[in-house]
Amino acid sequence: MADTAKNPKKRCNGGVAEDDAYKSKSSKMTKQAAADPAQALASARHEFGEHGGVNMSIEASATFTVMEADTMRKMFSGELGPDRDFFVYSRHFNPTVLNLARQMAAIEGTEAAYCTASGMSAISSLLLQVCGAGGHIVASRCLYGGTHALMAHFLPRACGITTTFVDAGDLEGVREAIRDGQTKMLYVETMSNPTLAVADIPGLSRVAKEKGVMLVVDNTFTPMVVSPARLGADVVVHSVSKFISGGADIIAGAICGPASLVNSMMDLQHGALMLLGPTMNAKVAFELSERLPHLSLRMKEHSARALAYATRMKKMGVKVIYPGLEDHPNHAILSSIANPGYGFGGMMCVDMGTEERANRLMHHLQNTTQFGLMAVSLGYYETLMSCSGSSTSSELSAREKELAGISPGLVRMSVGYSGTVEQRWSQLEKALLRMQDELVLNNNNNNS
Predict the structure, then answer these.
(1) Which tens digits make up the pLDDT trace of 263-277?
(2) How many Å apart are CA 226 and CA 43, to the nearest integer?
(3) pTM assigned to the model
(4) Domains and CATH numbers, the chain
């Protein structure tokens, strides 16, 4: 059998094969469907199993055979590829991983996507590909600690890529920081880690287009809640390990953007993804693809719980930070860019003022009332909490934390959805009341 008829029975919605294996069809859907990530995902190609199973098969092969000897030359020259179901090696493209990529592209409303072994591998590969040696980035001064360290320390040392950190909420300051001819990228998080400042993505997109730079948005905190690409972002990155996975058991990442970008990153001679090898395992991709259909339900519940707890804590006089509260400085921005029905996200912060008080609160929440768990990461069905300044933002210097607005006592919470709202609120309230009693007792002892 000739290789040009290698797989005549591709199974997909409507029986029509994709033009490009990693592309989403979301751009051809109705405006209503494209505006809702859940509808876009439901309209994406459904990959069936090898024998007609409702779930796709896992393609666990590292390498792939060909029927004709000359076919391998054609694949390496680019004449044949995954768009026609020809695969060379799973570090390049893998059918199961490509299915997850199509789903991610549908959710984010981008032309294409590529899934990687971790969020940081997605970010680092993208920065190296786009910026090149000596390139310049303008980035928000409040970013995940690992991303900040990559930009502030590793890239300058390794390849001369430098970053100017700015207040992303000051559009004029962002514009002034962009260096004509040198700046390649403007990089922000939809909701900053850990301060929960919300980026004005449409405004930043206007600045980026005016200056001719790529706008990259990390949407890890707000999948489904916000769709940056539909608001003007060029590329969206994710740590898929978090809300998208939902089980705190998988490390993964994704890059969602134009097909031309994915093609360049997979180039055999020059592509960062191809040559650096941040490959996602096919079994991981299969597990993640099975979790995506209920991501919208999970995000709605995360958001609903966070809003309920934040509202009640505010009434108690607790210094709570949540963009869903009307007094949050970016509440109006998030309200204007959020997808209807998904709330304001599942991340919430409590500022206890000092690291000692933050640690004491977390101790009570985990060990006294069993409200949540002291752990980094986010997006789990149980509430996870950490003192950001001494954990996930520890890569920042004291001055950098101050500029980013990270208080020493800032407790970042990823609000879970296990148990009932009232059950969990009772546990949270008891811990907060315990803290208030201890503060009163300490004050009395100090005054006596």
Answers:
(1) 999 998 999 999 999
(2) 19
(3) 0.91
(4) 3-293 (3.40.640.10), 295-447 (3.90.1150.10)
